[in-house]
Automatic annotation (TrEMBL):
Gene Ontology molecular function: any one: medium-chain fatty acyl-CoA dehydrogenase activity
Protein source organism: Pseudonocardia alni
GO BP annotations, alphabetical order: fatty acid beta-oxidation using acyl-CoA dehydrogenase
Entry keywords, A to Z: FAD, Flavoprotein, Oxidoreductase
Record-linked Pfam families: Acyl-CoA_dh_1 (PF00441), Acyl-CoA_dh_M (PF02770), Acyl-CoA_dh_N (PF02771)
Cofactor(s) listed in the protein's UniProt record: FAD
Protein name (record): Acyl-CoA dehydrogenase
Broad enzyme group: oxidoreductase
Span of domain Acyl-CoA dehydrogenase/oxidase C-terminal: 240-387
Top-level taxonomic group: Bacteria
Similarity remark: Belongs to the acyl-CoA dehydrogenase family.
Domain Acyl-CoA oxidase/dehydrogenase middle stretches: 128-210
Length: 393
């Protein structure tokens, strides 16, 4: 079957309007605050501006106020939004809310959609996804899940510790992965639960200091102790949590790639503009062979990442699992974006490491992506296993 990656007129128009909005409205705020959103009030202001510009919630279904884009459509728009660190927040497509919106649209009951999805898609509340645990719990190996959910009268009791829970500070609710059968190390046996932040059994702990700061709400430790929820808090079916996680994680890995590809393009634009005007050794920096090689390698990495992202998106839009394509796109893009930003910083010399441009901030933000959503090494292991299995059928 031929792969058709052409975008329709609506997607092209939305991408162009998003690009203008980000450059004209969002980038000045980003540059004024060093790439870190200063307050929740500023988040609300940017989101109001995105609504006024008609670019808000491009991924959400129309009945929830969005544009209902498929994965290929999201690739075009999310990359434009990602041109600024604050663009995804403005459009309400930042992690973890974007992935949670996608999951709730697919899995939630009608009552859960009204209670949780509608306000989340509207930007009225934020959320978090509580899966990762301190060692030896779930991380790269989700089967190590140790948080438990035990049946009690009227519902469930959740007990366990989570960490690196992005956006937990200020989230209205958490989607919590807990083991409902088996023991850590067993495949399967996990269930997703919707837990309101005011539940007395859920305690928000410390902010974990990290390289990155642009993911709003931080990365936190969260404790569940005798956390009681009713049966209607189960998201989907009991013991099907790992299957639902794939509904969320595959697309979420790609949307991360899309957003960071936007930052790679921004870094390249900064580098090329500087190389074109910087005079060194009697000529423009852009006329020197070593600088040209870095500029060219950046263009190659950006183009290759875009192609891999679009291919994986197309596979998902066809209803295929696309595990191989997603892992390849995620691994390559995470490393390519780092290379692009690093080269851009190098081309800018002392200016690159100064606070006069945001390349240093970009470098700190993109480095963790080689770990988030599965380390490169885990994805390479998965890619190799699939390749061997395909060859030995």
């Amino acid at each position: 079957m031929a792969v058709d990656l052409a975008q329709d007129a609506h997607v092209q128009d939305l991408a162009e309007r998003t690009a203008r909005f980000v450059r004209e409205v969002v980038v000045p705020v980003e540059e004024a605050h060093g790439g870190v959103l200063p307050s929740d009030g500023e988040r609300v202001r940017l989101q109001d501006a995105a609504r006024a510009a008609g670019v808000f919630a491009p991924h959400a279904a129309p009945e929830f106020g969005g544009h209902g884009l498929d994965m290929c459509g999201r690739a075009a728009v999310f990359t434009e939004a990602g041109y600024s660190l604050l663009g995804p927040i403005a459009l309400n497509i930042a992690a973890p809310d974007e992935g949670n919106i996608h999951l709730l649209e697919r899995i939630a009951s009608e009552d859960q959609k009204v209670r949780y999805l509608a306000p989340l898609a509207a930007g009225d509340v934020r959320s978090c996804f509580a899966m990762t645990e301190p060692s030896p719990g779930a991380g790269s190996d989700p089967d190590a899940l140790s948080t438990t959910a035990t049946r009690v009268d009227g519902g469930w009791r959740i007990d366990g510790r989570k960490w690196f829970i992005t956006g937990a500070d200020g989230a209205a609710f958490a989607i919590v992965m807990a083991r409902t059968s088996g023991v850590p190390g067993d495949r399967g046996g996990a269930t997703m639960f919707l837990v309101d932040a005011d539940n007395p059994g859920m305690t928000i702990g410390r902010h974990i200091p990290t390289l990155d700061e642009s993911l709003y709400g931080g990365h936190l430790e969260v404790e569940f102790s005798d956390c009681r929820v009713t049966d209607d808090a189960v998201l989907g079916e009991v013991d099907e949590g790992y299957r639902y996680a794939q509904v969320r994680l595959g697309p979420a890995r790609l949307t991360h790639c899309m957003r960071w590809l936007g930052i790679a393009r921004r870094a390249q634009d900064i580098a090329v503009a500087w190389a074109a005007e910087r005079q060194v050794f009697g000529s423009r920096l852009a006329d020197l062979g070593m600088a040209q090689a870095m500029i060219a390698d950046n263009e190659i990495d950006i183009a290759a990442a875009r192609g891999l992202i679009l291919h994986a998106c197309w596979e998902l839009d066809q209803g295929r699992p696309a595990g191989m394509e997603v892992s390849i796109a995620k691994t390559f893009t995470a490393e390519a974006v780092w290379r692009v930003v690093d080269r851009a910083l190098q081309l800018n010399g002392g200016r690159g490491v100064s606070g006069d441009v945001l390349l240093g901030r970009f470098l700190r933000e993109v480095r963790p992506f080689r770990i988030y959503d599965g380390p490169s090494e885990t994805h390479r292991w998965s890619i190799a296993r699939r390749a061997v299995a395909r060859a030995t059928r």
